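Supplementary material to the annual report.
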Amino acid sequence: MSIRLGDEAPNFTAETTEGQIDFHDWKSGTWAVLFSHPADFTPVCTTELGRTAALKGEFAKRNVKAIAVSVDPVEHHHDWSKDIAEVGGTPVNFPIIADQDRKVSELYGMIHPGEGDTSTVRAVFVIDPNNKVRTTLTYPKSVGRNFTEIVRIIDALQLTDRAPVSTPVDWQPGNRVIVAPTMSTEDAKQRFQQVEEIKPYLRWAAEPSA
Ligand code: BEZ
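Predicted assembly:
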């Protein structure tokens, strides 16, 4: 069964480059970005994991931990990590799951047999501190992911969790937001700055501060 938004992220135990983990214990109280890649020692994946390492500070500011998964063994992950650090310029600073028995990959539907073989596609799960799945993304093996977009999604989720607003097309942090339909324009004017009614169903407001 596929994992849908709002589902509880399935728990698992796994061997990783940072030792054995219980996923829910490992991410306790934090957001997590769980992402799969097809194979170690491949070029696109090398750039993706390097970028993830470089984003450690940005993730930490947002209370997010990253964790990668592929079906390769942990010794390969350790060897490949040296290349990732050399190419990307940052030591690998997050765990990589060695999912040789495909337990995690199958639990999260990361293997798409129509995509050529039994390696994992480029799946991303953004999971909140309550272990709820908040975003899923699936990219083909030949297309590297945009990790800046993953950070932007987390910013949007954290903003829309703390205020009754939504983010419009192409939103970036600091841009204006959309007042939730459940709030009257009058109430919005009390709560937010620069409220502007374009349509009864489209009211802009300045981004509320944290
Ligand atoms: C890559 O990471 O470069 C890659 C891996 C599997 C299939 C295609 C590309």
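The pocket of benzoic acid is lined by residues 38-39, 42-45, 141-142 (CB under 6 Å).
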